[in-house]
Structure formats: C-alpha cells, structure tokens
C-alpha cells in the first residue's frame, strides 16, 4: 500500500519523526523515546511514513533503524511552488497598482499646491 505523502505530513507527530531522523538514522526505540505516547502508537506513525516512502526501515542485527528518504517531499514542494508563483504575481501586481496610485496622488497634491 502506497500512502499519500500529504496525509503523512499532515500529522504533527509524523512531521516531528521526520525532523528527528532527517540527518541521523535512529533505531525504533530511540524514536519512540522522544514521544509521550505508547510505542505501538509511534510504530503506527512510522508505518505510515514508511508506506508513503518518507522512511526506510533497515534491520541491523536485532535492531530496526529508521532512515529518512525525503525524495517524496518533492511532491509537496511542487504543489506549493505553483501557489508561490500565483501569489508572487498577485502581490507584484498589487505593488505596481499601489505605486501607481501613490504617484497619482502625489501628482494631484503637487498640482494643488
């Protein structure tokens, strides 16, 4: 089963798990120690992150280590980028409009003096 990356990062606990292991892999117990919830609850979050491809679990001996694979976050970046472009264009147009309005007001004030 492949989960939607947007649903995975919608949960603050899962975002925190990603933050924890973004730079260093950690074993499952070390991850769980950072949260005030049961280990099975943390395991469910890790399972969801694994299913959407944001985490990779690697077994080393008896331990299971989580490693972040943040490639899937590119989907989020691409989605956000379209709105960044949209709002940048709108705000630039607003800036141009306000600048023109200010210049018109300044010209009217100069003529009235």
Describe it.
The chain has 113 residues and is α+β, with helices and mostly antiparallel strands. It has two domains: 5-68, Winged helix-like DNA-binding domain superfamily/Winged helix DNA-binding domain (Arc Repressor Mutant, subunit A), CATH 1.10.10.10; 73-111. 64% of the residues lie in helices and 12% in strands. It has five helices and three strands; from the N terminus they run ααβααββα. It has helices at 5-10, 12-21, 28-32, 39-51, 74-111; strands at residues 26-27, 55-60, 63-68. A three-stranded antiparallel beta sheet has the order 1-3-2. It is rod-shaped. The N and C termini lie far apart (74 Å). The mean pLDDT is 91. Residues 1-88 form the HTH arsR-type domain. GO terms for molecular function: DNA-binding transcription factor activity. Pfam families: HTH_5 (PF01022). This is Transcriptional regulator, ArsR family.
């Amino acid at each position: 089963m492949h989960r939607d990356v947007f649903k995975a990062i919608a949960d603050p606990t899962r975002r925190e798990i990603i933050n924890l292991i973004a730079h260093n892999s950690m074993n499952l117990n070390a991850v769980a120690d950072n949260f005030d919830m049961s280990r099975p609850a943390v395991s469910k979050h890790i399972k969801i992150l694994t299913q959407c491809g944001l985490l990779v679990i690697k077994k080393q001996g008896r331990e299971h280590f989580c490693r972040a694979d943040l490639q899937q976050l590119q989907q989020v970046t691409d989605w956000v980028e379209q709105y960044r472009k949209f709002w940048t264009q709108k705000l630039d147009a607003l800036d141009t409009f306000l600048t023109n309005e200010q210049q018109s007001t300044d010209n009217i004030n100069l003529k009235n003096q």
